[in-house]
């Protein structure tokens, strides 16, 4: 049983693991005093404020579990349900109305989930995305459909159910990855600053992955042991009852 479930966990997350291979770039670091504290700083703009604003990123597996998005970052994150809802709506629209390829959906999901990465969470301002990662997302999503948005600082969103909006391919709205990230509400980082999609970030994604897997496995082990314990207690209870019954029968 243990082996079967482990396999399932890996199957579910394999696409995200593969994504790591597409991510490359490098980074240096300079933090302001607020950022040095390592606490969650809400991103503003279209991004819902963090409930854990001012507190350090924490384990949020249970909260993210049922939303099935951004789970990769659940080991250590500033996110809670409100960020998940906004990210999953965007990805759901892209899947339903955007005619996006699987590769586009996977990369766009990772982009939307960037706010749940703990390193993005503790930096101020809009999520900083590496230009190279923006290029990859744009390349994969240039034929997917987006519409204009009047939300603050965001120009385009994946097309939704509403027929009032004009849907056009991403490549008709913008012509490169930098402009794509900017139009979807992210700040593009070109050099020398930590950003989402960098090689340092790749390392932290790998860490996130193993953190999440180990949390999942320990939850599983706990469940397994609890079951064993229950069965053992059940057997013990039955034996005590049997012994008591036998003693009574002997006494009669
Ligand atoms: C966009 O504008 C319409 C009216 O023009 C308004 O009803 C809607 O709430 C706005 N949406 C956002 C996200 O600001
Ligand atoms: C990307 O496109 C924008 C506007 O479409 C343009 O201003 C900018 O120079 C382009 N950037 C690159 C790196 O080509
Ligand atoms: C997008 O680019 C414009 C012009 O360079 C800039 O003013 C704006 O702040 C950028 N948006 C984001 C979310 O970084």
TrEMBL record:
InterPro entries: Folate-binding_rcpt-like, Folate_rcpt-like. The keyword Transmembrane helix does not apply. Residues 64-184 form the Folate receptor-like domain. Residues 1-28 form the signal peptide. It holds the Pfam family Folate_rec. Keywords: Disulfide bond, Signal. It comes from the Eukaryota. The keyword Signal applies. This is Folate-binding protein 1. It comes from Cardamine amara subsp. amara.
